[in-house]
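Ticket #4471: structure output looks truncated?

Reporter: J.K.
Steps to reproduce: submitted the chain below (121 residues) through the standard prediction queue, then opened the result file.
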Amino acid sequence: QVQLVESGGGSVQVGGSLTLSCAASGYTYRRYYMGWFRQAPGKGREWVSAISTGGSTAAYADSVKGRFTISQNNAKNTLYLQMNSLKPEDTAMYYCAADCQAYSASWCRYWGQGTQVTVSS
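Returned output as attached by the reporter:
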């Protein structure tokens, strides 16, 4: 019933920007946080950013602070991740998650299919 669909991934040069979107359906009532995670080849799923239901609180992993911005449009039921000053180490599959009680993948109930971000050096 609940579906999350990511879009906006692609390939960019170092220093470039991308905006990821996560369209949610069947999830108009949000219990906890929504957020973004990423997973690079051979690595675990890493927490990137989270935002509270009302959008008043946002949090970021140290690796992306100052470069990424999380936001949401509740009217459109869409979550965004603006990524600036991209680095090769940002290359990963990015996942949208919903109903997260903590900044950890194991605490999120719903997941999107992922969108690939590739940053070339």
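Triage note (M.O.): checked the attachment and the full token line is present. The chain has a mean pLDDT of 93.
Status: closed, working as intended.
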